[in-house]
Design brief:
Number of helices: 0
CATH architecture: Beta Barrel
Number of domains: 1
Mean pLDDT: 93
Strand order of the largest sheet: 1-2-3-4-5-6-7-8
Helix content: under 10%
Shape: globular
Pfam families: Avidin_like (PF26421)
CATH topology: Lipocalin
Protein name: N-acetylglutamate synthase
Number of strands: 8
Strand content: over 45%
InterPro entries: Avidin-like
Organism: Streptomyces virginiae
Low-confidence stretches: none
Length: 113
């Protein structure tokens, strides 16, 4: 198992579609006893929360967010925790909206200092 996500900040590797997370979004992760949660904001997201579980290198969670346009959205995501060559962590995500149509993949990683 890779190290804990507790206290780590992650940023998207690339922008997604409008109304979704993007390079200006910052995720602040917490982890304790298999429970994982995070708060996020930035870009088109005013405020977002995710909560789920971790088993080994797999994180399974649901997310909900408030967008700049006043709409809300929610979905489900499964992430694989990987270690980059420089030691930073990356989450390889497979997600799907539950409040609207759509699904995809994305990556978030610890920012360079």
């Amino acid at each position: 198992m890779t190290r804990s996500l507790d206290g780590l900040v992650f940023v998207p590797v690339a922008d997604q579609a409008p109304g979704q997370v993007g390079r200006l979004t910052r995720f602040e992760y917490h982890e304790r006893d298999g429970l994982v949660w995070a708060d996020y904001r930035g870009g088109d997201v005013v405020k977002g929360h995710l909560i789920g579980t971790r088993e080994g290198d797999t994180v399974d969670f649901r997310y909900v967010q408030l967008r700049l346009d006043g709409t809300t959205a929610s979905g489900h995501c499964t992430s694989l925790v990987t270690v980059l060559a420089d030691g930073r962590l990356r989450l390889e995500e497979s997600w799907s909206w539950e409040s609207q149509e759509g699904s995809g993949t994305s990556s978030v990683e610890q920012p360079l200092n």
